[in-house]
Amino acid sequence: MPNPVIDADGHVIEPEEMFENIDPEFCKRRPVAVTLPPDTEWGPSDKVFLIEGKIMPNIGGRGPLGRTTFFLPDSQLSKASQASVGNQTLTDIQARLEGMDRFKIDQQVLYPTLFLASVAEDPKLEAAMFRCYNDWMAQAGDKSGGRVRWMAVIPFRDADAGVKEVRRVSQLGAAGVFTMGIVWEKQLSDPSFFPIYEAMSEENLPLGVHLGWGSPKVTEVFTDSNSFFCSATMPVIWGFTYIMSYGLLNRFPKLRVGFIESGSEWVPYAINQLRRRYKPPTVIRTKRVEALGGSSVDANLYRDPVDWFKEGRAFVACEPEENLPYLIDSIGDDGLMLSSDYPHGDPSADEPYVEKIAARTDVAERAKQKMLGENAARFYRLR
């Protein structure tokens, strides 16, 4: 019997009603959906959230949160999708399961949409919104009979609250914990996050480092749609660099980490750059010289990242047209996953990836099996 196909990255598109039961002290500050006239610069993204007096997504360029790009349920973009609004929001779980069946997906691990940007400056409001999200996703997952799983959102800026929420979402059935490549102005190696990583390790919850506009300061630099790549995709590579160079997987021996919705061909490049910093190939200096500002690699905790991929501690979501033989030759096939990005329908999306990978003649069948489900089953907490 074939192994189940596990989509390593799908999404929910959060409805306004997700936040109806927010903690009473935040009720007046909850996200409110606003419909815009059809002739504004938002165009088909004509439904937005109002959060802390700011519009999200912000597609106007420089501003309070910079340029971000996603859509809300019932916007023109939402209605133009073949996925129904109930499918997008998980209010019609049967519609989501039928969408998965269409693309031959047995299980799907879902990441957020709204929280692909840092949207609330107040950490307490952010934490309250995150609790609403996690409750909504747990309920949807239960209704799916286990076919829809979800990544929890955690308030990283408040370690005590973050640890508490890790314990709670573990009981709710989360498959892991989501983060972007940078959390506001903190890198993923920041020691303030260590209690959260320790709690995740104890609960067997992996860390999914996903595309997203995590740093408003970075996002504000970009004024056009290239923000999608420059301020959302590139930080995933930053996250990889800081996790590996500061030895987080050695510091937390039970932690697993995956890099999601950023492609995968960059991984060998990033590894080679780390190797050069760990052991510079220069021949004109016979003695290692400490760089200005300190070393960029923790020599006591660093291990070659290829080891982590081969040992089942590091994973990356591939795109089916990528140079997979090159990738497998570089890091092996035990850390490679595949995903649909369903139902976003944006440049990251590849809904028929199962058929595309099946048609590849330059990838071994055993590697395909691993990429289609076995590796995701080892990365995520699915049982």
If you had to describe this structure to a student in words, what would you say it looks like?
- With 383 residues, the chain is an alpha/beta fold.
- It has one domain (6-379): Metal-dependent hydrolases (TIM Barrel).
- 36% of the residues lie in helices and 14% in strands.
- The protein is built from 14 helices and 13 strands.
- The strands form three sheets. Strands 1-5-6-7-10-11-12-13 form an eight-stranded parallel β-sheet. Strands 2-3-4 form a three-stranded antiparallel β-sheet, with no helix packed on it. A two-stranded antiparallel sheet has the order 8-9.
- Strand 5 (107-111), helix 4 (123-143) and strand 6 form a beta-alpha-beta unit.
- The chain is globular.
- The relative contact order is 0.13.
- The mean pLDDT is 94.
Q: Gist?
A:
The chain has 383 residues and is of the alpha/beta class.
Topology (elements, then pairings):
Elements: E1 6-11, E2 32-35, E3 47-51, E4 54-56, H1 76-79, H2 85-89, H3 93-102, E5 107-111, H4 123-143, E6 148-153, H5 159-172, E7 176-180, E8 182-183, E9 186-187, H6 194-203, E10 207-210, H7 216-219, H8 227-245, H9 248-251, E11 257-260, H10 266-278, H11 305-310, E12 314-318, H12 324-331, E13 336-338, H13 353-358, H14 365-379
Parallel strand pairs: 1-5, 5-6, 6-7, 7-10, 10-11, 11-12, 12-13
Antiparallel strand pairs: 2-3, 3-4, 8-9
